[in-house]
Amino acid sequence: MKKSFVISMLVVISLLFAGCDSDSIKADKENVNIQADSEVDKTNMDEVISDYIIRYVNVLHKPTEKQFEEHRIYGIEEKADRITVYLFSIFDGYSFSDGYFKNLAYSTRYVVIELEKKNGQFEVVNYKDSVVSEDVKKMFPTEYAEKALNEKPKDLHDAIKSKVELWLKSQGRMEKTEGS
């Protein structure tokens, strides 16, 4: 009895650890229920994309007080009312701790996101991402994959840093940032 219990526990623990490999995280809208923020301007494609990525990636990390996202679009394909966007995204999640506003969650990912435009508003209908650069060649058309793989996103980091500072100021907070 003890032996079978120990073996069962080892199997369960092994499966838990196997499922925690961040490089293997891939999902689509059917696997994660993402509800759009009611304050997001749904007529602004970039806002809809950022909101979706923040909500999606946030469930993959430990909770943080405030999340920020920046992305670079490498290509857009439109067919009827479907829009497919190929992009690279940076996500940072911050929380207040020890007198600092600390970056406690960080993620970069390549994303293919499909949107539908209905009555002038964008809605995410499909989402696929990878944190593995080799997957870009499978996910993106060749011309977009080459751009995405040959670019360094320092300006996206700088844009997030600016967003963080503006947000802190808007909240009347004086903490310095750490980890950005």
UniProtKB/TrEMBL annotation:
It comes from the Bacteria. Residues 1-18 form the signal peptide. This is DUF4468 domain-containing protein. Keywords: Signal.
